[in-house]
Design goal:
ABC transporter transmembrane region fold; four-stranded antiparallel β-sheet; single chain; 2 domains; Rossmann fold; six-stranded mixed β-sheet
Length: 624
């Protein structure tokens, strides 16, 4: 049976996610276990907060509760009791002090707990995002992810902080006030409750309408933030094409969309506020009518009427506060919905298939009839088969978009094949624990990414525990010392965002030094000298040879003269390997490689070059 007949589909579409994982539906059920885990160490704090809230709300009811005896006994014109007045004053003052103290403690405890919870959730979300597959990053803007991490988790503050306290505390106050009102008059209370209950039903429907608006606001805000982040990062391109006004227009359009969303939510909330005021007026009229008749019938005293109205205010006020507090909580849940979308994404190393720990790599790499598609029905690679022996150099050449970078992505396990296998030392990368594989890789890219830190920090990024001797050796080998030691701060010099304070060649040398320090077993060089001038390139060729020695190396080549000594050259076109062999073999073949080489260097120049001359460095694909 052939290999093609034996192999099984893997579902390698990038849209499906790493290892074929599908997009997860947004759900707070996914996020709630993490919230509970974060709340667990704070359980005692929450219980204390609940106790303080009960004390606070009960203390707040002392004033309306004492209004009846104050009016009917102490201030009774027929039989006044002025001797009781100090007692009532002391009781009410004590209750107000207790309410003030508990309010202060609640704010201190729960607001600070909410902020700590936000910080912890940001750490967890950032860590989870960092562990997602490359496919996820391909489909989501950086600015969008930043907004998700920094803004969406803010809603936790309202769930743990004063927003939730006001909400639950208001409900507790409403229940206690409702019981008191029932005690005073079942008829009046049930009549009022019917009106308020209808309003609560309307509120529930309204919040179901508002919540998608807040979800949409978060999405728009993330998109606008993403575009702004891109614009700030690409300021040189924008200025180079005099596109400042154009970008300002794009940003203004995004801000306008955000404004329209906010206006829509404000219309809803203001409508609810107007409705709540109307209901309040209706309830007041009902109580005035029914309560007035109770007083005229001598069923109620003036104290009964006054205390009923005060307790009624304490019952109704929380319901109307729901318009504001409920809006905050709705916005919080909308943000947590979006956070739940991220947390529902599977980490790239979470596949149940990834159970094999990669031992120290020897360096045999084999692609077996590999096919791959970023999107369904749009294959990028077709039947790619080759083998690289330990310590050899394999060069990939071909026109732009031919599939070279995709082959490298599969080798790095950024994606898995739709069909076929990628083997390292006989181990299928689709089954490898990435934590045991990735540390044995070294990558030097054309556009070397540097962090806004020092030269030392950027080089030590690959191996933070490296000794000073190892660090200096890497710097000397990559010729970093030649420019770094000329700065006043030497290796402590700040390189700026993405290394903007360094030249392209200097950034590339730092990238090579970083790879040298990592001591990888498999080395990938993607146009690693394309940013260097001829003199700088010649200076670090020895460093590159040192870096490649004893390692299985893959080179994406731009200048074909730099790969003449590669052990094998793979010519990739249309996602297929159309030619393979040494420089001499491919040149004498007179095929695609011959065309590329002679187009780049000229046939006459090559008549004077013996096959095998030149150095092995690297770069990216020549344009056909």
């Amino acid at each position: 049976m052939s290999m093609r007949a034996e192999r099984a589909p893997r579902g390698g579409s990038a849209r499906a996610g790493q290892d074929g994982s599908s997009q997860r539906k947004p759900s707070l059920k996914k996020l709630w276990p993490q919230i509970k885990t974060l709340l667990a160490p704070r359980r005692g704090l929450l219980v204390a907060g609940l106790g303080l809230m009960v004390v606070n709300r009960v203390a707040g009811l002392v004033l309306p509760y004492t209004s009846k005896p104050l009016l009917d006994k102490v201030l009774n014109q027929a039989h006044p009791r002025p001797d009781l007045l100090p007692r009532f004053i002391a009781l009410v003052f004590t209750a107000m002090v207790a309410q003030a103290i508990t309010s202060f403690l609640l704010t201190q405890l729960l607001s600070k707990a909410g902020q700590r919870l936000i910080a912890e959730m940001r750490r967890q979300v950032q860590r989870h995002v960092g562990l997602l597959s490359v496919s996820y990053y391909d489909e989501n803007r950086t600015g969008t992810l930043v907004a998700r991490i920094m803004t969406d988790v803010e809603g936790v503050r309202n769930l743990v902080g004063t927003g939730l306290v006001d909400f639950v505390g208001g409900l507790l106050t409403a229940v206690l006030a409702f019981l008191y009102l029932l005690h005073r008059s079942v008829t009046v209370t049930l009549t009022v409750f019917a009106v308020v209950g209808a309003f609560v039903f309307i509120l529930r429907y309204a919040f179901n309408v508002i919540r998608p608006i807040f979800r949409e606001r978060g999405r728009i805000n993330a998109e606008v933030t993403g575009r702004l982040t891109e614009s700030l990062g690409g300021v040189r391109v924008i200025k180079g094409y005099h596109a400042e006004e154009r970008e300002a227009g794009v940003f203004a359009a995004g801000v306008e969309r955000l404004l329209n969303n906010v206006m829509k939510s404000l219309t809803m909330t203001s409508t609810l506020s107007a409705a709540s005021t109307t209901v309040l007026g209706l309830v007041s009229a009902i109580v005035m009518w029914l309560g007035g008749h109770q007083v005229l019938a001598n069923t109620w005293t003036i104290g009964d009427y006054f205390s009923y109205n005060m307790f009624l205010a304490f019952m109704i006020a929380p319901v109307f506060q729901v318009v504001n507090i409920g809006t905050q909580l709705t916005e919080a849940f909308a943000g947590l919905d979006r956070t739940g979308e991220i947390m529902a994404e599977l980490e790239e190393n979470q596949s149940p298939l990834r159970t094999v720990t990669m031992p120290p790599i020897q360096g045999t790499v084999r692609f077996e009839e590999v096919e791959f598609a970023y999107e369904a029905d749009k294959p990028v690679l077709h039947d790619v088969t080759f083998e690289a022996e330990p310590g050899t150099v394999t060069a990939l050449v071909g026109s732009s978009g031919s599939g070279k970078s995709t082959i490298i992505s599969l080798l790095c396990a950024f994606h898995t094949p739709s069909l076929g296998r990628v083997l390292v030392d006989g181990v299928d990368l689709a089954r490898v624990d990435l934590n045991s594989f990735r540390p044995q890789l070294g990558v030097v890219l054309q556009d070397s990414f540097l962090f806004d830190g020092t030269i030392r920090e950027n080089i030590l990024f690959s191996k933070p525990e490296a000794t000073e001797e190892q660090f200096l050796f890497a710097c000397r080998t990559a010729r970093v010392d030649e420019f770094a030691e000329s700065y006043p701060e030497a290796y402590e010099t700040i390189v700026g965002e993405r290394g903007v304070k360094l030249s392209g060649g200097q950034r590339q040398r730092l990238s090579i030094a970083r790879a040298l320090l990592a001591e990888p077993r498999i080395l990938i060089l993607d146009e690693a000298t394309s940013s260097l001038d001829s003199e700088s390139e010649a200076m670090i060729q020895a460093g590159l040879h040192q870096l490649m020695r004893g390692r299985t190396t893959f080179v994406i080549a731009h200048r074909l003269s730099t790969i003449r000594r590669a052990d094998q050259i793979l010519v990739v076109e249309g996602g297929r390997i159309v030619e393979r062999g040494s420089h001499a073999e491919l040149f004498s073949l007179g095929g695609r490689y011959y065309d590329l080489y002679t187009r780049q260097h000229g046939l006459e120049a090559n008549l004077f070059l013996a096959p095998g001359e030149g150095d092995v460095v690297e770069g990216d694909a020549v344009e056909a």
